[in-house]
Amino acid sequence: MPDTVRLRFRLDRASRDIAVADFAEAGLDAFEETDDGLVVYVPADVWADDASPARGVARDLIATGTPPPDEEPVADQNWNALWEASIEPVAVGPFVVAPTWAEPANLGGRTLLRVDPKMAFGTGHHATTRLCLHLMTSRIPSGGRVLDVGTGTGLLAIAALARGAASAVGVDIDPWSVENARETAELNGVADRFEVRDGSADDVPETGFDLVLANIIRPVLQPMLPALVARAAPGAPIILSGLLVTERDRFVDALAGAGVRLIDEAAEGDWWGCAGVSV
Predict the structure, then answer these.
(1) What is the CATH number of domain 87-278?
(2) What is the C-alpha R_g of the chain?
(3) Which CATH number is associated with domain 4-83?
């Protein structure tokens, strides 16, 4: 009997990230984005159990209008090896992001950042991460303090440290991300300057950060704006991503309501990010 079932869901881009998070919470960790959706690999015994959390996520998707997935049994394979082979070095502005098992062919003067992702978000392969790196590069405070909310792998904070920031605090509500970010800090030699905590912006008592970063989907990010502004130093840049282009106007209004002036913005595909300062 095959040990794995391949599920092909037809999903739009915004729904894919949410689905990945939900399936990861259900204990799955093998995904593949396609042009029109998401492929999820599920152990055959888990998929056969109608009471499994993975089945529950699939039912929730279908209940919201997603077509039932195409199901295909898959023969036993070395899934870790296949997954690792899919994570290649990626150049983003002055950075090259690469896992430890892949050696970039040519850095071209860029700063190498090592990330071995587990279930945490932030490998440089997603447009929202690239937008953050693009918007923050010219705004990294030399000798300053950085706050990275929803830190994922820790990539954004570590990039800031690699380009001149003195210290960073990263927070995430996901225990996998907290562990992964700490390991990423060790890989890049910045563990003594990067403190990773379990929690959200509300769990950071410090204020006066010289750069604030958050790459989080809009329904979570928008209510968080006052907390982010409260922790930024006056005039400090606040870099935000995880937003769809279609959400841009609504979010700009929310920024104004939170006392943030938009100073820069960028888009890639369906995704949008921005830089602002408190006013």
Answers:
(1) 3.40.50.150
(2) 19
(3) 3.30.70
Model's pTM, two decimal places?
Answer: 0.75
Cβ neighbours for 183, distance < 8 A, ≥ 6 positions apart: 116
In this prediction, residue 104 carries a pLDDT of 79
CA–CA dist 137, 101 (Å, integer): 26
Give me the pLDDT at residue 109, please.
83
CB 182 within 8 A of CB 249: no
Looking at residue 94, the DSSP 8-state letter turns out to be T
Instruction: Return the domain boundaries, the chain.
Output: 4-83, 87-278
8 pLDDT band, cuts 50/70/90, is very high
Evaluate whether 241 touches 273 at the Cβ level (below 8 Å).
yes
Three-state DSSP at 77 gives coil
Adjacent-strand bridge partners of 244: 271
Beta strands in the chain (DSSP E): 4-10, 31-34, 37-43, 70-74, 90-92, 95-98, 111-114, 145-149, 167-172, 194-198, 211-215, 237-244, 260-268, 271-278
H or E element in which residue 20 lies: helix 13-25
CA distance 262 to 274: 7
* Burial of residue 89, with CB atoms counted within 10 A of its CB: 0-12 exposed, 13-18 middle, 19 or more buried: middle
- Cα 63 → chain centroid: 26
Beta carbons of 162 and 188 less than 8 angstroms apart? yes
* Element holding 124 (H helix, E strand): none
